[in-house]
Amino acid sequence: MPGPKPLIYFDNASTSFPKPAAVAEAMGDFLSHRAVNPGRSGFDLSLEAGRMVDQVRGRLDRFFNNPAADPDRAVFTANATAALNLSLQGLCSPGDHVVAPVLDHNSVLRPLTMLQKAGIITFDLVPCDERGRVDPAAIAAVIGPLTRLVVMTHASNVCGAVQPIAEVGALCRDRGILFLLDAAQTAGLIPVDMTALQVDLVAFTGHKSMLGPTGTGGLIVGPDVDIPSTHSGGTGVRSASLEHPDEFPWRLEAGTLNTVGIAGLAAGMDWVAAKGIDTILEHERGLADRFLAGIAGLKKIEVHGCGHPHPTALGANHLPVISISVAGRPAEQVGLFLDTDWNIAVRTGLQCAPLAHQAMGTAPSGSVRFSFGFFNTPAEVDVAVTALEDLAG
Predict the structure, then answer these.
(1) CA torsion angle for 184, 190, 191, 197 (degrees, to 10)?
(2) Torsion of CA 180, 184, 187, 193, to 10 degrees
(3) Least C-beta-crowded within 10 Å: which of 38, 51, 182, 311?
(4) Per-domain residue ranges of the chain
(5) Distance of alpha carbon 301 from alpha carbon 235, whole angstroms
């Protein structure tokens, strides 16, 4: 009898897998030899751990081209969700108005809803077109005198549509409104240049295209952004004071950092830098184009967010993230078939972005999402196409 089929992993928009071997090696080495509390004590290992953290802060400051040019404004969090909550809860005051697109992830939509239910803010959501793209004019139309902040995903985690961030950044800058960018899907895959995009804050995660481990991420805070802390605790500095330090990064950090994860994130960034973002994106987009060309003739399958139900290539401004539906079959059923019969891992359902699915007409079932990574191969794509031909041919 033939053995079990090897796993084919097409859920890289959730988390990249596998990671480069260097990531596990760096984490293992740090855990074995230097995993003490960073900067909390004066002995050599603590100072060495603190230097590693500071070096990664500097790398992140340069990676995102923060116009502040201040590594201390690279604040570590557990993930992009934590960074977004830190921003939204810290920046918003009673009476403020916030603008966001329907494409945003629940890591934006739920904090905004919580703040609105608490009577602190109001917010407006702007629509997207059939390609999942938000028109900057729609954002301009709902900005009012109380608008404090625009928060926006750089690219949809459902359909991969890259948004016109530079245009929105210019709009916000002209009107004196803060602009918070959710770069969970883009950091490490396409450039996220705060200066060029005129972005004030960037929330990122380390475990997707930056190829680091889970439990890593952060907030990059631009110049002249006054964001107070929403939590307090130990920092290792000015311990005699019962008030939390006001300086960055301690202003937004409390407690022991995930230094083992930060060491792994640094290794992931090393790997991305050595390979080159352009090379990585070209490979992943090539896989996505191969997939689309392979399923284009399957009329029971519809592709969402590409402007055409049967595209043969991604087109411009699109990440290698593809959502499909199969006529007559709920998304969960398709995912179960791919998993049990072909050992293909995909993401089904609403992908934590329910309003994006409402906009695309795929609610309430959601979609079957294929998201390609650098370690995927053309042969794996061909297996997925064969599996879908078996299901919907």
Answers:
(1) -70
(2) -10
(3) 51
(4) 8-20+276-392, 21-273
(5) 53
Placement of tokens 């033939």 in the chain: 2
pLDDT, one tens digit per residue, over 367-388 is 999 999 999 999 999 999 999 9
**Residue count of the chain:** 393
| Residue 124, both tokens | 């407006």
Residue 326: phi, psi to the nearest 5? -115, 125
Topology at the third CATH level for domain 8-20+276-392? Aspartate Aminotransferase, domain 1 (3.90.1150)
Class of domain 21-273: alpha beta
Helix axes 378-392, 277-295, angle to 10 degrees: 30
Strands (E), the chain: 8-9, 74-77, 96-101, 121-126, 147-153, 178-182, 201-205, 217-221, 301-304, 321-326, 344-345, 347-349, 367-371
Residue 33, phi then psi, degrees to nearest 5: -125, -20
| Cα(207)–Cα(224) distance, integer angstroms | 29
Give pLDDT tens digits for 310-356: 999 998 899 999 999 999 999 999 999 999 999 999 999 999 999 99
Its sign, for the CA torsion 220, 225, 229, 234, is: positive
